[in-house]
Amino acid sequence: MAAPLTVGVLALQGAFHEHMQHLTLLPAPAGYSHVAAVAVRSAEALAQCHALVIPGGESTAIALAAQRASLLEPLRAWVRDGRPTWGTCAGMILLAREAAGGKRGGQHLLGGIDVRVGRNGFGTQVSQLRAVECCGPAPFPGVFIRAPIVESLLLPSDISAVPPGSATLTPGAQRISVAPPLEAEGAPRARRPPLEVLATLATLPGASAPAPKSERAPASLDIPNRPPHDAQIVALRQGRLLATSFHPELTTDGRLHAYFLRVCVLGSDADVGMPPLDADE
Known about the structure:
CATH architecture: 3-Layer(aba) Sandwich
CATH superfamily: Class I glutamine amidotransferase (GATase) domain
Number of strands: 14
Strand content: 15-25%
Distance between the termini: 48 Å
Number of domains: 1
Radius of gyration: 18 Å
Strand order of the largest sheet: 2-1-3-4-14-13-12
Number of helices: 6
Order of helices and strands: EHEHEHHEHEEEEEEEEEEH
């Protein structure tokens, strides 16, 4: 008898119920009885999952709750092992290798995606709705609530001057939190999967004019569909890790949940229907 495909949703804080509702509506993949969404609040629950979703919420609160539940290191091991993981909004921050703008003392990160994000890049708690063109011809309703902004894509070989797990001040007076390295101490740096830009905005957050050309040398990373400025990026993938600035779980559109299941969990790039296109306000 076929078993379910179990997708865990980190249920420590944030919009985890909404993610679970979306996942249970997905059709059963071939070879599985159905998609089962389970709340993950312990290492034991995480171990029963085929994939994991980290919801939107407050990234510092989620990280602290994970630490208190003895889940932080199991989560880092999960990401380090390349298990399928999707982070939305706060989840994107936690999956980033570096995060700017945190509280004094920094915050815990899981790492895994070679990107630096900035907290609250889309403004206030009041949600903003932007049409994000991904997942096919119909625009996707992008809900941005204090959403992170992509400050920069990072070379896999980049070694930050900030010690892993610590926080410091940049010249711009932004505190930078850095995730622990994915490799064990002394181990050779593993080859990272390439970064893939999935969706961008035509303008920078808070701007009405087209985004300026980045001052960064365009040859620093050879990534197809990279926009003129990294802050325009709102969805990207690196191997089996997916991150979105916005909240697909707060809409009735399930295409991104289907994409995560099909591409990151099941490993099928066939007919994904998600071209990286620009979006207007």
